[in-house]
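Continued from yesterday's entry.
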Amino acid sequence: MRESFGTKLRAVRITPQPRAVACSKQNPVFKRPQSGFSSMSLQNRLHEKSAVIGVVGLGYVGLPLVLAYAAKGFHAIGFDIDPSKTDALLAGRSYIKHISTASVAAARASGKLDATTDFSKISACDAIILCVPTPLDAHFEPDLSYVTDTLDAVVPHLKAGQILSLESTTYPGTTEEEVVPRVEAAGFKVGEAVFVVYSPEREDPGNSKFTATNIPKVVGGHTPACLDAGTALYAAAFDQVVPVSSTQVAELTKLLENIYRAVNIGLVNELKIVADSMGIDIWEVIHAASTKPFGFTPFYPGPGLGGHCIPIDPFYLTWKAREFGIHTRFIELAGEINRTMPEYVVRRTMEALNSRGKAVKGSRILLLGLAYKANVDDMRESPTFELMDRFQELGAVVRFHDPHIPVVGPTREHMNWAGATSLDWSADNLTAQDCIVIATHHAAFDLTALAARADLIIDTRNAMTNTATKPGQVVKA
């Protein structure tokens, strides 16, 4: 493994540093590459927008991507094993809150968007982009089954001249070790018949400033011809493309981005515990430190990490590093701190209830916000689940309220909550709680009404800082 990893790095064209590629007709990216293309090459079809783009996996990454290519004038086909998603798209409906039904309906009306569960239609595509989950297993080791199962469904329908791109976050070497061998085992020479690239997704659900196409797109290829094809594929839809020297560089780039956040969040979470013990408001400290115009980037504490990336991605690198005899102590320590934050919130809640002469057992506890971040309906890896589990284990009567998630759907780790419904926001329901925990700060929450009705508020997000409250009513955790 290690020898082939190093050999592949030497074989790929090396550039001194990543170069930003703007999307324009005059850009050199559209010139015919050095090998592997005919007069009606993949690059030409991308330039002419006659190429068919297939996106496999229609979740928070795949749906914006397939819509982006359709909006650019390409015939785009979305693939998923879940017929409810493909049926919704064929009917012109969105199933993700921050993606409008109007955008889906417009794509359908233009005739540019199709969706299917039939993977044999992969053969009709010029480009296939894989956007499937890469979770951890019970031992915090990579679970690539979604990637490998998808490859096994896609590869039998490949044809010469296609490009295959993996976007799922994973450890360095995955493209070379899992994707390339499967393509070549099917009889295709990678870099000549089929072009394999890796380009990490950079979606930020709910962030209106950044859309699917205005975030710079990093791409690495198995060979120079693969890189040329991948650059052309993404330059056709994205404002800026950043080619790098190998798929491994692209894979590690994504991990670095998320490890950087995980480590800094771990640091500020630890500082929150220290500050709380000293009677210092860590939020005020962060605000004050943020006034420094250089050398400081603010990160904010919370009840734990959520989302599909930050709680998971660092462990992909720690797992791979062990193959090279390296123990990533710093990364693992940050992960340990972040994983313990739900327990810290539970302890602070127990102390607050105890100060009012109440035990957790039998107390009515309402969690505000099931989504892992504000103003979205994405509950993947949400720490709220951990809080609900722990409070329930302690004997509390646990409910949640989230205007974006009326019903809990199936999850890999928390099937016990599937079917649970969001408690209605009402004066009576707020008053009836012994404790209300703000786990996610949705803009939809009426904090003034909350302060008027709640007896005890555990604030993990500094949400109540600008709302008038009674002395002792709010405990920060």
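--- second protein ---
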Amino acid sequence: MEKESVDFLKRLIDAPSPSGFEGPVRKIWQERMEKFADEVRVDLHGNVIAALNPDGKPRVMLAGHCDEVGFMVRYINDEGFIHFVSIGGVDSSIVSARRVKIYTREGVVFGVVGRTAIHLMDEEERKKVPKFHQLWIDIGAKDKKEAESIVSVGDPIIFDQGFQELRGNLVVGRGFDDRVGSFAVGETLRLLFQAQPKASVYAVATVQEELGMRGARTSAFGISPEVGIAVDVDNTTDHPGTKDNKQRFGDLKLGGGPVIVRGANINPVVENLLVETAKGEKIPYQIAGAPSGTGTDANVIQTTKGGVAAGLVGVPNRYMHTPVEVISLEDLENVSRLLVSFIMKIDETTDFTP
């Protein structure tokens, strides 16, 4: 992957974007897309929509949600400790003893999620997983008055961890789910900018996916595409804890290429053309089966207005919804290559009727 693209990805990952608070990531994505799109706008919901060749046919929507899971300040007690709730699905067992950032109207406040020392817990306490209402954040305030002078109820919170390279093509970061999706659809638009596709292409950094695919629902309604492809992450089964459960979760791995999803949520013409494209371009790919809804932006795109020919391409991801998600840059790059080649194959004569 080119250094400029890696730098763009790093900026997306290092920026905070809990669902409902996507502003910093939205700004980064919008500024980059303005170089490669005919028009870029932000809708009332907060989705960023970048259009290329808007008069072309068919109208294709590419969606990658730019929000991440996180936390929100719920209550500040008399001693100045902060109690919080999750934004989206976070496992409470991984939250204790972590550094966090609280994003206030005045700037960033650093804190730590407190954890009773092991010396002060009896054997039974050590075995228990704390619930969110039993956790707290320590910002070093002496009392409630001091804490409330810098932190407010409703402020968003993220883990204090960003982007880092591991070995080979692997990288680790907080919230690859799904800033890598918004990255991929943005990179697709960049690559299409000089290719002159016959289709009109709307790349969208959607918001609030973690709260029920809300941004994709509103942006798809406004764009009214004939074809809509979501890019999201997909759980791998190539590490301890999952590799012996492939009969339950399938067989996906880092470095195996983009994941092309099949099932009721997916238009079979879109799926077949994605597979044919991958084969023709010698892009490695993996197949995942989804017998019902996928729980991604593809869900709501498919059922917009009179129906959309929907597809779903996954970026293989280890340790989803943790601050240490791991992906392969090669897989991510191949997602954009696949989408570019797919779009260049279609025109107004392509029939997506199942």
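The CA atoms of residues 102 and 157 lie 4 Å apart. The chain has a mean pLDDT of 96. Will compare against the first tomorrow.
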